[in-house]
């Protein structure tokens, strides 16, 4: 029997507007600037930003190996909601398609960003992605803070 793992839910306050955050999450030119850190570098991001449109990112890990993550957009409601399926090629071949959702709300002069990632059937895979989203939200926070305009 397959047991569904609990959803990953993380929130972070950011100084940027919802529109700036949404753009950072959907504009390929911006995504390649901030998504990644010491562990890996995104080299390419393809985005067909429409419900049913595909996205794909390719990059190089810290160990020098190529990687890809990809999926299909399901909900696009600028600047507050972005939802897409999530697949990747670095598993042992048993990765299950999961679902990622960003909810971005105004909070004071900035925003509150909530990411929810569901569909995990493996506890270790869920834990790895939970740690990954902590990194991603940190990178997004730092990028939008550096690129904030008054």
Largest sheet: 7 strands, antiparallel
Subunit arrangement of the protein: single chain
Can you name the CATH architecture of the domain at 8-33 and 77-146? Answer: 2-Layer Sandwich
Radius of gyration over alpha carbons? 15 Å
Pfam family, one: AHSA1
Family: Belongs to the AHA1 family.
Protein name: Activator of HSP90 ATPase
Domain Activator of Hsp90 ATPase homologue 1/2-like C-terminal: 16-142
Give the gist of this structure.
This protein is an alpha+beta fold and 150 residues long. It has a domain at 8-33 and 77-146: START domain (Alpha-D-Glucose-1,6-Bisphosphate, Chain A, domain 4, 2-Layer Sandwich), CATH 3.30.530. The chain contains three helices and seven strands, in the order βααββββββα.
General description of the model:
The protein is an alpha+beta fold and 150 residues long. It has a domain at 8-33 and 77-146: 2-Layer Sandwich (Alpha-D-Glucose-1,6-Bisphosphate, Chain A, domain 4). Helix content is 27%, strand content 41%. It has helices at 18-26, 28-34, 123-146; strands at residues 8-14, 40-47, 54-61, 66-77, 81-88, 98-107, 110-118. Strands 1-7-6-5-4-3-2 form a seven-stranded antiparallel β-sheet. Strand 4 and strand 5 (81-88) form a beta hairpin. It is globular. The N and C termini lie far apart (53 Å). The model has no long low-confidence stretch (mean pLDDT 91).
């Amino acid at each position: 029997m397959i047991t569904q793992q609990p959803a990953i839910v993380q929130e972070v306050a950011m100084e940027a507007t919802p529109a700036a955050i949404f753009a950072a999450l959907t504009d390929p030119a911006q995504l390649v600037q901030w998504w990644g850190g010491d562990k890996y570098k995104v080299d390419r991001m393809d985005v067909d930003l429409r419900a049913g449109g595909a996205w794909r990112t390719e990059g190089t890990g810290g160990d020098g190996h190529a990687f890809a993550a990809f999926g299909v957009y399901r909900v696009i409601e600028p600047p507050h909601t972005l939802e897409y399926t999530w697949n990747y090629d670095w598993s042992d071949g048993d990765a299950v398609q999961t679902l990622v959702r960003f909810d971005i709300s105004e909070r004071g002069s900035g925003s509150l960003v909530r990411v929810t990632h569901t569909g995990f059937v493996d506890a270790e895979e869920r834990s790895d992605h939970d740690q990954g989203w902590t990194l991603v939200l940190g990178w997004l926070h730092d990028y939008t803070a550096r690129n904030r305009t008054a």
